[in-house]
Design goal:
Strand content: 25-35%
Structural class: alpha/beta
CATH architecture of the largest domain: 3-Layer(aba) Sandwich
CATH class of the largest domain: Alpha Beta
Shape: globular
Distance between the termini: 65 Å
Number of strands: 19
Radius of gyration: 20 Å
Family: Belongs to the CarA family.
EC number: 6.3.5.5
Keywords: Amino-acid biosynthesis, Arginine biosynthesis, ATP-binding, Glutamine amidotransferase, Ligase, Nucleotide-binding, Pyrimidine biosynthesis
CATH topology of the largest domain: Rossmann fold
Bound molecules: glutamine
Largest sheet: 10 strands, mixed
Oligomer: single chain
Pathway: Pyrimidine metabolism; UMP biosynthesis via de novo pathway; (S)-dihydroorotate from bicarbonate: step 1/3; Amino-acid biosynthesis; L-arginine biosynthesis; carbamoyl phosphate from bicarbonate: step 1/1
Enzyme class: ligase
Length: 360
Amino acid sequence: MKGYLVLEDGMVLEGETFGETQQQSGEVVFNTSMAGYQEIFTDNSYNGQILVMTYPMIGNYGINSRDIESLKPSINGLIIRELCKTPSNWKSEMNLDAYLKMHHIMGLEGIDTRKLVKHLREEGTMKGVITTSINNKKQIIEKMKEEDIQTKNFTEAVSTTKPYVLPGNGPKIALMDFGVKLNIIKSLKSYDCDITVVPYTTKAEEILKLGVDGVFLSNGPGNPQTLMPAVENIKKLTQHKPIFGICMGHQLLSLAFGADTYKLKYGHRGGNHPVKDLLTNRVYITSQNHGYVVDEKTINEKEIMITHKNLNDGTIEGIKHKYLPVFSVQYHPEASPGPMESKYLFQQFVYSMRKQKQAV
Ligand SMILES: NC(=O)CC[C@H](N)C(=O)O
């Protein structure tokens, strides 16, 4: 069936639908990874977004039940150049078309993704609608303009509603869940951590009552500034426990230290973003997925040190407190998908918890 992507600025692109034919809206963002589409679709940080993949063929190794970052895909829609209907891989259990149907997500193929991404790069990411009819294009655009994605809380839909424990014999961690990726949990589990995953609304006092050795702040969708109550809790926790934050966790931690965040023109989403560790001068190739970033001008240098920078645009990629065992990165050391060379950061967190324990 014919399908269309209608952008907020009036641009329309025509393609063929797959998956479920169900009209959906969302911020249209692009990811440049060449592989790992399953991990990307199931990353909760994409909640509410229509995703464009720049790699020209998607679906070639099918879908399996193992390579997931959460139990279901979070994307509101998928836009690709070409859909592979006959996957070939020993792990494959179904094709992408069937998978999107199962989760009621609409896909569009046959789209000139190169033209679309050039447009988004020049104009910035914007809202869009995927639909099977553009007879009412004017109304579609007007309606899409009404929704304010900058003030909407997307975390609510993906955070756990009840705490749960993943027992282990290593350091005891409270993981504040803003939409956590499974590989973050697996990475902490590789150190046999005892993890209590708590809802993002959990109060600092309740977390401290758990008697944990450290607190982990997860990734998650949406604007970090919609989560100011969590920022207040994090502010309290920084005075008591070692903390490690990734992506949304990094942004919230920075807000807790009084910094500001802003929205990037088209974000960083892909598997090859170069990041420089300013303390060692080493460059890491990193996996990324974010639209917001911490504003360098607002960092309180008396307390906070910028530890990492993005070599493409110079934005902040990591911070650390000068005296407290508290640090965070904007990129994804857990990879999934993407390079795994930053995994040592989990070890650094485990080490900081052990050190703190010995000190008291
Ligand atoms: N992966 C993430 O945690 C993303 C954080 C935030 N939602 C952003 O887009 O910047």
